[in-house]
Design goal:
globular, three-stranded antiparallel beta sheet, 79 residues, 13% helix, alpha+beta, 1 helix
């Protein structure tokens, strides 16, 4: 699975639907709005496909796609 392509699909859906990124080591990251993510340009070297999640307090978290277990839409309920 190409994680960055999957994230791009979720971010570009209209209307946007919140989703969560589940990490292999347990944490879940809720994405309530597309502006909470920063993705690299599509032309970026596929061997280094990192992206960033921004918390509500403005701090950022580096996400390594190799540590993502799955990406799932939210079903209308808050996590």
């Amino acid at each position: 699975m190409n994680i960055n392509a999957t994230v791009r699909e979720f971010v570009s859906k209209r209307p946007f639907q919140p989703f969560r990124i589940e990490m292999v080591d347990g944490p879940m990251i809720r994405i309530p709005h597309p502006e909470f993510l920063a993705l690299p340009p599509q032309s970026t070297d596929p061997r280094n496909p990192v992206f960033y999640y921004f918390r509500k307090d403005g701090t950022g978290v580096h996400i390594n796609p190799m540590m993502v277990s799955r990406i799932v839409p939210e079903s209308g309920r808050r996590l």
